[in-house]
Design brief:
Strand order of the largest sheet: 1-4-16-6-13-17-18-20-19
Organism: Nocardia speluncae
InterPro entries: FmdA_AmdA
Helix content: 10-25%
GO molecular function: hydrolase activity, acting on carbon-nitrogen (but not peptide) bonds, in linear amides
Radius of gyration: 21 Å
CATH class of the largest domain: Mainly Beta
Distance between the termini: 47 Å
Strand content: 25-35%
Mean pLDDT: 91
Number of helices: 7
Protein name: Acetamidase
CATH superfamily of the largest domain: Acetamidase/Formamidase-like domains
Structural class: alpha+beta
Order of helices and strands: HEEEEHHEEEEEEEEEEEEHEEHHEEH
Number of domains: 2
Largest sheet: 9 strands, mixed
Pfam families: FmdA_AmdA (PF03069)
Oligomer: single chain
């Protein structure tokens, strides 16, 4: 909000005078276009390049087109601080927590001002879609996360709309959240969540591990689906292992794939039990590549769903409204991966998973429940001698 002269209102001046000096930014905000290499393929999160609450479908027009093997730099903004129940004004919302106007992202302000979120849509802002030349249904899109840079030194954790695991329980229901600051401790970043109670001041300080909650390809539908539930297209899978260095593999649903990202997080616990993680904006550098359907058929006989290779692990997923079914699907996909990549008998792969792999709830609050497995690459010898196996296993760092 601005005054008649274009400057801050009297209310904002008063707020800044009272609490603004209490907020010390841990690092400068990363505004749109700032720090971008002129040679980079850059996609800002401006209103013309994002969707609010819905995901691209086969009828959408790409905001950019890239060839396989291309690196792209993509800005994301968080939905926290801009939603209706927070006042639909990020300058005012974050100003109440001592954040100066210059420390609020300009693209978050512009997206909010457009007011393009449809009734009943999800909360997320997704940037894209990005067309990948030559991608066809049946291919796998490999999205390598090269780098994730925090764009603001703060974020928000919240619960709302009766979606948390404890929804309906007295004392835990309702719409509420917490503004969190970011701190540097000996070269590592941490979030701070106040724990004030009964007149005492305290806080929980936890390490940050930024990742994108939403990475997906367009659905093969004539209309845009909501951004909340994940599925075969990826989307809101909320696997916190998708930090820098990870590669996510997505089954292409429509020609040119139409990739998009969003729901940036600074940190999340497996389960995401209250509803959100520490929601905060990121700049992502991604390299997109393709594994053609012919290579998959030549070296893998199982079902293909979203899965990842990261940090020495294979990470299959399972998603379904019923958590038990999501687990069953994840185990099935894990058996298929182990059998296909290492020439294992499926029954022996099943026994291995029981002895040595972990199956974890990714999230339990997004209509469709998510489970992911963690399978150590180091437990196996050489992979199957197929192009497909080589292209997956080379991605595990």
């Amino acid at each position: 909000m601005v005054g008649a002269s274009g400057g801050p209102t009297n209310e904002e001046v008063a707020v800044t005078a009272l609490i603004g000096q209490d907020f010390a930014a841990a690092f400068p905000v990363l505004q749109p276009d700032s720090g971008i290499d002129p040679a980079a393929v850059y996609i800002p999160a401006d209103p013309g390049k994002v969707l609010w609450g819905r995901l691209p479908c086969r009828t959408d027009t790409a905001v950019a087109t890239v060839d396989p093997g291309t690196a792209v730099v993509v800005d994301t903004v968080s939905h926290e601080g801009i939603l209706e129940d927070q006042g639909s004004d990020p300058v005012r919302y974050f100003g109440r927590h001592g954040v100066h106007r210059a420390e609020v992202l300009a693209d978050a302000v512009e997206v909010t001002a457009q007011g393009r979120r449809e009734s009943g849509a999800g909360p997320h802002i997704v940037t894209g879609p990005i067309a990948v030349s030559g991608a066809r249904p049946g291919d796998l899109l490999a999205v390598r996360i090269d780098d994730l840079t925090m764009r603001a030194p703060y974020g928000v954790v919240s619960t709302r709309h009766g979606r948390g695991v404890l929804a309906g329980r007295p004392g835990f229901d309702g719409d509420y959240g917490q503004f969190c600051r970011v701190h540097d401790r000996e070269g590592r970043w941490f979030g701070e969540l106040p724990l004030d109670t009964a007149g005492r001041s305290g806080s929980a300080v936890f390490p940050l591990a930024p990742f994108l909650g939403i990475i997906g390809v367009a659905t093969d539908t004539g209309t845009r689906v909501g951004s909340v539930p994940p599925g075969p297209h990826g989307g809101n899978i909320d696997v916190k292992l998708l930090t820098a260095g990870a590669t996510l593999f997505l089954p292409v649903q429509v020609p040119e794939a139409l990739l998009y990202i969003g729901d940036p997080h600074f940190a999340q616990g497996d389960g995401e039990v209250a509803l959100t993680a520490l929601e905060a904006p990121l700049r992502a550098t991604l390299t997109v590549d393709l594994i053609p359907a012919a290579e998959i058929a030549g070296g893998f006989g199982g079902r293909i769903g979203p899965f990842a290779a990261a940090h020495g692990l294979l990470i299959p997923t399972g998603m379904h409204p019923d958590l038990n079914t999501a687990l069953e699907l994840c185990v099935t996909h894990a058996v298929d991966l182990v059998a296909g990549l290492f020439e294992a008998d499926p029954r022996q792969a099943y026994l291995y998973l029981s002895a040595a792999a972990d199956f974890t709830i990714s999230q339990a609050v997004d209509q469709v429940r998510g489970v992911h497995a963690m399978i150590r690459r180091s437990d196996f010898g050489a992979g199957t001698d197929t192009v497909f196996a080589r292209r997956i296993l080379e991605r595990i760092r």
